[in-house]
């Protein structure tokens, strides 16, 4: 699961008011090479919740991103390279996503998060 995906997921358990961002419990991280596309990165940047992204990247062992970022950084090749790597090339292969409000764990196996809810959570 890429951090791009993580940044767009939130808990939809019934009654949860604060389901974003999921905390990440890492068992295995893999890096998968992805073609660099600066245009995509510039277009997706405003949609990324930066603090959640940086915290998730650090949890996955990638401390290279700045604490804060604004659109002025999109002219920097160095920033775009780091942003690209964190957003698209780091994958949570095994672990769990944890709801910040309830603590409910959603397993991630072979890079796929299982977000199915139990009957009482719907």
UniProtKB/TrEMBL annotation:
GO terms for molecular function: protein heterodimerization activity; tRNA methyltransferase activator activity. CDD domains: Trm112-like. Pfam families: Trm112p. InterPro entries: Trm112, Trm112-like. One of its GO terms (cellular component) is tRNA (m2G10) methyltransferase complex. GO terms for biological process: maturation of LSU-rRNA; maturation of SSU-rRNA; positive regulation of rRNA processing. Interacts with TRM9. Belongs to the TRM112 family. This is Multifunctional methyltransferase subunit TRM112 homolog A-like. It comes from Juglans regia. The lineage of its organism: Eukaryota, Viridiplantae, Streptophyta, Embryophyta, Tracheophyta. The gene is LOC108980392.
């Amino acid at each position: 699961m890429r951090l791009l995906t993580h940044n767009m997921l939130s808990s939809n358990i019934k009654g949860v008011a604060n389901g974003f961002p999921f905390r990440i419990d890492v068992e295995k991280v893999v890096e998968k090479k992805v073609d660099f596309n600066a245009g995509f990165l510039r277009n997706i940047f405003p949609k990324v919740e930066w603090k959640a992204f940086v915290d998730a990247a650090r949890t996955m062992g990638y401390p290279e991103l700045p604490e804060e970022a604004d659109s002025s950084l999109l002219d920097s090749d160095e920033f775009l390279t780091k942003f690209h790597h964190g957003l698209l090339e780091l994958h949570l292969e095994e672990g769990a996503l944890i709801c910040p409000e309830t603590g409910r764990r959603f397993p991630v196996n072979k890079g796929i998060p299982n977000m199915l809810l139990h009957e009482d959570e719907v």
